[in-house]
Amino acid sequence: MNMMSDPNTKRKEWLSLLAKSPAAKLSKLWTDLSIEPVHTVLRSPEIGGVMVRGRAGAVGAAFNLGEMTVTRASVKLSDGTVGHGYVQGRDKDHALHAALVDALMQTKMAAAIDTALLAPLRDGLKRGATERAAKAAATKVDFFTMVRGED
């Protein structure tokens, strides 16, 4: 499906960001927001597993790589907005915070939540990627061949 025509593109982006962000950082930012939206827990945080699939060389036939532990949660705000959180690992608070943020991002509070919570998470992930790239670049070996005078 073309991402440009997908109406859920923005939601996919913030759900991905919430899933990839460190639980401690999300928890701190959530606490700093000092909001406790009225909500009902539709699905209490529960731990399960999902099958991870891979492709040899990213182009070959798909194969089952193995299982990964995930935690999921769902909430419903007082206005009826539903939010879901799926995160890697066994952190129930992480999944619940992700679900609450997902729900709030679908309300009029979206801009404030994006500025106060998602932007710092985005910056942290970008900084981490930059640091990993710098470490990898430091170990790069450039090979070259000198041309000898023979043909």
Q: Give the overall silhouette.
A: elongated
Structural class: alpha+beta
Helix and strand string, N-terminal first? HHEEEHH
Helix share, percent: 40-55%
Order of strands across the main sheet: 1-2-3
State the separation between the terminal residues, measured CA to CA.
52 Å
Count of helical stretches: 4
Quote the beta fraction.
25-35%
E-strand count: 3
Regions with pLDDT < 50 over 5+ consecutive residues? none
Give the rounded overall mean pLDDT.
Answer: 89
In this structure, how is the largest beta sheet organized?
3 strands, antiparallel
Rg (C-alpha, Å): 21 Å
How are the SSEs placed, and which strands pair?
Blueprint: H1 9-20, H2 23-33, E1 39-55, E2 62-77, E3 82-88, H3 92-104, H4 110-138
Helix pairs in contact: 1-3, 1-4, 2-3, 2-4
Question: What report would you give on this structure?
Answer:
The protein is 43% helix and 26% strand. The protein contains 4 helices and 3 strands; from the N terminus they run H-H-E-E-E-H-H. The protein has helices at residues 9-20, 23-33, 92-104, 110-138, and strands at residues 39-55, 62-77, 82-88. Strands 1-2-3 form a 3-stranded antiparallel sheet. A hairpin with a 6-residue loop joins strand 1 and strand 2 (62-77). The mean pLDDT is 89.
Keywords:
single chain, 151 residues, alpha+beta, three-stranded antiparallel β-sheet, 3 strands, 43% helix
Put the structure in a nutshell.
The chain has 151 residues and is of the alpha+beta class. Helices cover 43% and strands 26% of the residues.
